[in-house]
Design a protein that fits this description.
The chain is mainly alpha-helical and about 150 residues long. Helix content is about 65%, strand content about 5%. The chain has a two-stranded antiparallel sheet.
Length: about 150
């Protein structure tokens, strides 16, 4: 009995991704959108860190650098989500859950921060929906059992 000699799919992209013309797997739209949300949040956090370090005076350089280091969480998650890596959903979910109370605080602070709170809150809620959607879980290979 001869078996089909196709190489098995490796990694979490096996079910949810489609192959493009170059033969590489492309993640589903929901996964790409979740990566975009995480990437946008990461860039916003990095910009905040640079702003703190540059315009906050000498006493704000260290906090600005700390915020820049924190930007690695959503940026790393965006990188992993775009490549359909299973590990990336955890950091992305953490970022969305951390964003919700920050958005709530911004909404209640008044002034121009209210608009930022609205944007951040909508991004966080949208990111959560995208990350827990069954298509995203399937594309990442999360939730599969030995029988499936």
């Amino acid at each position: 009995m001869k078996r089909d000699m196709k190489p098995p799919h490796s990694g979490p992209r096996a079910k949810g991704a489609e192959e493009n013309a170059s033969g590489t797997a492309t993640p589903p739209l929901r996964l790409t959108a979740a990566a975009a949300v995480a990437g946008f949040e990461g860039l916003a956090v990095a910009a905040w860190g640079v702003t703190l370090a540059v315009t906050g005076g000498a006493h704000m350089v260290l906090p600005g650098l700390f915020v820049l280091v924190l930007a690695a969480l959503p940026l790393g998650a965006a990188y992993g989500l775009r490549r359909a890596r299973r590990w990336s959903r955890g950091p992305a979910l953490i970022m969305q859950l951390l964003s919700l109370p920050i958005a709530w605080t911004m909404l209640h602070s008044g002034g121009p921060a209210v608009a930022g709170g609205v944007v951040l809150g909508l991004l966080a809620l949208g990111g959560l929906v995208l990350l827990v959607h069954p298509a995203t879980s399937e594309a990442l290979g999360i939730g599969r059992t030995a029988a499936s």
